[in-house]
Amino acid sequence: MPDALSSERPDSVVKTWEQAVLWLRAQPQQRNLVLAAYYDDPIRAAADRYHTSDEWREVQQYLPTGSDRLALDVGAGRGIASYALAREGFRVTALEPDPSAVVGAAAIRGLASEAGLPIAVVDEFSEQLPFSDAAFDLVFARAVLHHTKDMQKACDEFFRVLKPGGTLLAIREHVISSTSDLPAFFEHHPLHHLYGGENAFLRQRYVDAIERAGFKMSKILAPLDSAINFAPHSEQSLQLEIAKKITGGSKFFSQLFGRLLGMRLVWFLAKPILRRFDKRPGRLYSFVAIRP
Hints:
globular; 18% strand; 15 helices; alpha/beta; Rossmann fold
């Protein structure tokens, strides 16, 4: 992609997700977002950063254990999660229909080759998996369900290809309180106005699709419950951000209130209250489910 992309009107040049990401990377003011989304290069460094992130450390507690584990990373993007899974000892199949060398299958192949990791890449969509029944111990879906054209069909396929006792991790899914919140979500999403493709659903929509497929829901992680959802914030930086909003940005009082929220008991008691008032369109939930 030529450097001139950054000087063009974005709506005149952005036709693919790759172009949207390249445009974002060309905006100096969006550097923190690029890093938070692991869109930066070199890709190996971005993958290493994800593997050592607070988010991944939280994910690890839900991964199946044992030897010779097989994982399917659906909607694998540029392979950041596939890389982390392979580093944990999984034999990984990365499902990614986009051929892009920046955010798609070619990027994953390059990363796997460079790192010498067992990651196979398959060009297909979640709703029609080209795998036999009971083939995997883990289906890992990071920010995938809200992109599916048919969420129920995708969940049915995840159930089919998992072994009995296998785990579905559907993490970082956009949730809205009402369908009337969708316009606000689209308006504030940093890339939707460039290429589209984003979506958000009621929390119950995800729960219904997962359970109707036959899964037993093991855990639902709300936005403030886990770094899986509030990353790239750490728990401390999240508490400070909440304190700033509550105190109107006053430096003295936000720091004071942030320290108060940092007390373990106070944070434990505050989260249910904060959760009740958290109506942000597109806030993130994660779902852990088991195939019985």
